Amino acid sequence: MSSIETQPRSVSQTQQYEECSWRFYLQRVERVVPRPAAWSHHGTAFHAVAEAFELSGRTMSEEEAVQLFSDRYSALVNKSLEVEPDTDRWLSAGRVGGGEDIERRYALGLEQVKHYVTDWADGHPTNTWSTPDGKPGLELYFMVELGGVRVRGYIDQLVDDGDGSVRPRDWKTGSMKSKFQLQTYGVAVRKRYGVEVNKADWYLAKDGRLSRPVRMDGVREEDVAERFAAMDAGVKRGDFPASPAFHCRFCDVSHACSFIQRVAT
Ligand code: SF4
């Protein structure tokens, strides 16, 4: 328990704790092995392509991008199949079984990659911001203190808006969007680099477009810090209540949870 009490926090940890603290406990304290989900591999493989494509200065060809997605997705799926060979036990959304979802997301991911590197990129020239020491703002790691809590994360892309401000961008393959995530990135970038952040947005792979910008100029550090501080205090108190609800259907440690049987079936 000591490491979970003292380790830095992240947006995903905080959101997980807020949604169901028991899930946080099962995953991060009890170390229950989560059930795999093709949606997670789809997201990781798409990110790998977007990062490599932007890092190449958009010189990577569609063929190379497709190959990278294919290699990365297959490797991730195969690794998970070693842990859980029964695809009926994989998580999937809707009525689609795990095996079918693996196939479906492979085809979907390939289409999304092609669209991103060809159609979308052609119509949307984008300058990636670089840190003062020359690191490109792609999968950029940060660690800052917010409300007395060390918070860390990786920002998919920092776009140079050309007016002295920087725009955090998150690449999304799923449909769950988190303003808290963008707000945390904005606050962290301001704090770490002293640059202005007025807007943030999502690239929505599902729709093949950018979201409307989320305004960041009114976002104060203390508003974001409050949520990290509350989560951190809860973990330190050992406070892990279960919150069974609709989201149990997408919970990757539900197989180890007794609360789901009472409410969510
Ligand atoms: S199954 Fe539901 S109640 Fe149990 S840990 Fe997961 S989200 Fe929480």
TrEMBL record:
<keyword id="KW-0347">Helicase</keyword>
<keyword id="KW-0227">DNA damage</keyword>
<protein>
    <recommendedName>
        <fullName>PD-(D/E)XK endonuclease-like domain-containing protein</fullName>
    </recommendedName>
</protein>
<keyword id="KW-0234">DNA repair</keyword>
<keyword id="KW-0378">Hydrolase</keyword>
<dbReference type="GO" id="GO:0006281">
    <property type="term" value="P:DNA repair"/>
</dbReference>
<dbReference type="InterPro" id="IPR011604">
    <property type="entry name" value="PDDEXK-like_dom_sf"/>
</dbReference>
<feature type="domain" description="PD-(D/E)XK endonuclease-like">
    <location>
        <begin position="10"/>
        <end position="257"/>
    </location>
</feature>
<keyword id="KW-0067">ATP-binding</keyword>
<dbReference type="Pfam" id="PF12705">
    <property type="entry name" value="PDDEXK_1"/>
</dbReference>
<keyword id="KW-0547">Nucleotide-binding</keyword>
<dbReference type="InterPro" id="IPR038726">
    <property type="entry name" value="PDDEXK_AddAB-type"/>
</dbReference>
<dbReference type="GO" id="GO:0004386">
    <property type="term" value="F:helicase activity"/>
</dbReference>
